[in-house]
Amino acid sequence: MRRRVAVAAAIMVVLASREAGTEPLHLKTPSSVQTDGGTTLRLPPGYFLEEPVWHDLDEEMKRLQEREVRLDAENKSLRSSAKEISFGWYVLGAAVVAGFAAGYLYGK
User: Fold this and answer.
1) Are residues 56 and 106 in the same domain?
2) Which of 44, 49, 61, 102 is deepest in the core (most CB within 10 A)?
3) What is the span of the domain harbouring residue 6?
4) Of the candidates 55, 4, 6, 51, the residue with the CA atom closest to the CA atom of residue 25
5) Mean pLDDT of all residues in the chain?
6) How many structural domains compose the chain?
């Protein structure tokens, strides 16, 4: 029974640490970190991500930027082609006038 509790606790710790690893580390004050090679790094206040999380976010940002650029280009093209098709108002106006004329002539 003790072994099951220990295994369940270990699984909970692994799952909790995996979820916590996907969130950025938020340093509210300047900090310093010493690397395994002995180099000391000074970190400003801010958010810091692990490499895989940063890579995923970077890829998503690039994908969204490409979509936005493509959408802007498509909108610009659509607007310019819509300006060229101004005869639609003339057709609509002519249909209304023809309708009134036909109603007046056949309504008598």
Assistant:
1) yes
2) 49
3) 1-48
4) 51
5) 80
6) 2
